[in-house]
């Protein structure tokens, strides 16, 4: 007999496979293929390992990585909401909270609680860890857009002010990364990768 | 001016995007689509978070996760080698060591060193962390095969003894997980998902 708790955990692990089929708007660099949630979550977790040294404040890198690995699990049931789609973002919070509750009931209490706490902290974006994690989550698709000739910025004619608002956590988390972002966005503007309005 | 070290790190992060296009033999559950290295690395990292409690020995979960996030980076330059392809495995080590050296030269010294050390520890499979990490790396494709009606076991007519050899790190890392694996493989045999030879 296999213990019930472990079987429940395995069932959840099998469910996680669906993250590989939840598509985001961002495309892979140099390709038409859209990125999925599993790929994105992996990329930003490794980014955190590489870029942690540039954080202004001391951060618990392990917590940042756990946050990034799990922050998009709500999309299993709430789907991906494009960050620049204002109407879809109106009920995003409500849909995601319901999904978070569902997920946390799917695995054993202590682990469901940990994932929920990580997600709540990420969403509130108040701790240095959550701000750094948000910076990774936002910088990665911008890199992909920059290297994809404007990507979703051009495809959806995103306003410059919305891009700066979206990337603003980087300004709070790291002076060095912010300097890089400003340079990249200036260059993107000059090259016409960001619509001028 | 953005500092040179950060620019080198960003260049590496952009290179990481290619992991999303390195295909493994395993398919996503219920789909024809083959899994890629980024998806796989994400899945096993979250699995480690969920299953760490079943480890026989105390493990440093943060190290396990970092190991799992980066263990397949060598495939950026060495490609994916199917675990049951004996001839391709003959020069795997040589190809991967060359790739590891290339990767570690691509990012700043200290971080290249950390990634190399994590990879060496994973490959040597001696520490409790490396054995647990290997267990995640091997359990996940077995789950996908089990839920995919035999998947690559049937497609490539893999010998039962090779499957047991491949999954053997689980036996060393966790009595509870090993109990689960034995049950799953017994069931797979009974259902004809593993070729009887």
UniProtKB/TrEMBL annotation, chains A, B:
Pfam families: HD_3. Keywords: Hydrolase, Metal-binding. One of its GO terms (molecular function) is 5'-deoxynucleotidase activity. Transmembrane segments: none annotated. The keyword Plastid does not apply. InterPro entries: HD_domain, YfbR/HDDC2. It comes from the Bacteria. Residues 17-178 form the HD domain. The keyword Hydrolase applies. This is HD domain-containing protein. GO terms for cellular component: cytoplasm.
